[in-house]
Amino acid sequence: MKIWTSEHVFDHPWETVTTAAMQKYPNPMNPSVVGVDVLDRHIDPSGKLHSHRLLSTEWGLPSIVKSLIGAARTKTYVQEHSVVDPVEKTMELKSTNISFTNMVSVDERLIYKPHPQDPEKTVLTQEAIITVKGVSLSSYLEGLMANTISSNANKGREAMEWVIHKLNAEIEELAASARGSRRTPMAAAAFVEK
């Protein structure tokens, strides 16, 4: 078993970051996620948003790993559960693979919280527990997978920034459109009065 952890600070408020996290896929930084299906989404009586999604991924497994685990297939599925608490301002996301579970399990946990000193920033804490079973060199393979997770985490942060930029551009476009539509009726009214 190998445990990988990381912490990152986004220079954006919690509301922005959690909105981006829910819309992270697809993105050009991590094309390995080829599909996202929402299986269930509901708000519980306390106001927390619960989401259960299925992610279809193309694992870029190194050829040595494929040969060691005896897998030619690279399409895998991951189940993801998230809980967004708007009162406490926390988002916890847990994911685990549901493919190849007899050989490998990757359990990941991400927590997004406002930065304790600066509410305009968000702290992301990540943890992944990697377990390779029933093959020789399992410790070596767990290390390789931890390195891949670390690399993918960096891509994931870039993807979050990309989504945030995209969301901000959409908001600005809507605001500009709203400003334009407000002017049009007033201009028409001024024309009619003359």
From TrEMBL:
UniProt domain PRELI/MSF1: residue ranges: 1-172
Domain of life: Eukaryota
Transmembrane intervals: none
Residue runs in coiled coils: none
A Pfam entry, by short name: PRELI
GO CC, one annotated term: mitochondrial intermembrane space
Name of the protein described by the UniProt record: PRELI domain containing protein 3B isoform X1
Species per Swiss-Prot/TrEMBL record: Zalophus californianus (California sealion)
Record lineage: Eukaryota, Metazoa, Chordata, Craniata, Vertebrata
